[in-house]
Amino acid sequence: MANVMSLPAERRETEVSEKAKRRRFGAEYKVRVLHEADACKQVGEISALLRREGLYSSHLVTWRAQARRGELAALAPKKRGPKPKELDARDKQVAEMAREIAKLTRRAERAEALVALQKKLSELLGIALPTLEEES
Questions:
Q1: Which of 10, 18, 129, 130 is 20 to 30 A away from residue 27, measured at CA?
Q2: Please, are residues 64 and 34 in contact by the beta-carbon 8 Å criterion?
Q3: In b/e form, how buried is each residue of 27-51, taking b as 16+ CB within 10 angstroms?
Q4: How many domains are there within the chain?
């Protein structure tokens, strides 16, 4: 057995990354490997294929089971997280009405603030504002 220090510097470096990272396989890759594995007829060809691709036999077992069940779409990576909710016409209408109500409420509050400002300004300037009885 050779001493590690006698090896060249480029062979002493490890290929292990600092943090483990889960491998992800694309659907095309999985289908290609399954076809190659099915084409293997001689003893040891499948294990050579697995070594060459850096796979485990459990990958083949899982992918074959998915293909057998007709889950070819399952070979593609699954999107994680909650499923988006589809809104029907009533939900869209309710949301639109809620936005309209909020817009009108802000507008009414702004108008009330302007009226209050006008009242204060008229008091400061000593201008008498007409009352409701005088307007009718």
A1: 18
A2: yes
A3: eeebeebbeebeeeeeeeebeebbe
A4: 2
